[in-house]
Amino acid sequence: MACAPPPEPLPEEDRPVSLDDPEMPSGVRAAVLQDAQPGDVLWRCVRQGAPAGPLAVLGWGHRPRVVEWWLMSAEGELIEVYWLER
User: Fold this and answer.
1) 50: phi > 0 → left, psi -120 to 50 → alpha, else beta; which?
2) Domain regions of the chain by residue span
3) φ/ψ of residue 68, rounded to 5
4) Where are the beta strands (DSSP E) in 1-86?
5) Cα–Cα dist 68/14, whole Å
């Protein structure tokens, strides 16, 4: 009996991506290409941003989703994290 293939990851889940992934902003891609070595893996990671709005000083307010791009070595060590400032 064959098992069904795993479902595709949701856009909000951390997942490895290729260096030519169309979701990656060009500025991030340029920085990654400068640092990446053969065998490194790039991950797309969605996180909550800092609170925004008038109550942000108190830690309350809308927390937008932020996409970070994590460059990991073949051994699983974090090399660098990239993101866009808004």
Assistant:
1) beta
2) 15-82
3) -110, 150
4) 15-17, 41-48, 65-72, 78-82
5) 10
Q: How many whole angstroms separate alpha carbon 56 and alpha carbon 17?
A: 33
Per-residue pLDDT of 37-71, as tens digits, reads 999 999 999 877 667 777 666 766 666 778 899 99
Q: Taking the model in full, what pTM does it have?
A: 0.70
Instruction: Give CA separation, 81 vs 9, 16, 55, in Å.
Output: 21, 14, 28
Q: What is the mean pLDDT of the chain?
A: 81
Distance CA 18, CA 7 (A): 19
Measured from the Cβ of residue 71, the count of other Cβ atoms closer than 10 Å reads: 20
d(CA 6, CA 53) in angstroms, rounded, equals 39
C-beta of residue 6 within 8 angstroms of C-beta of residue 37: no
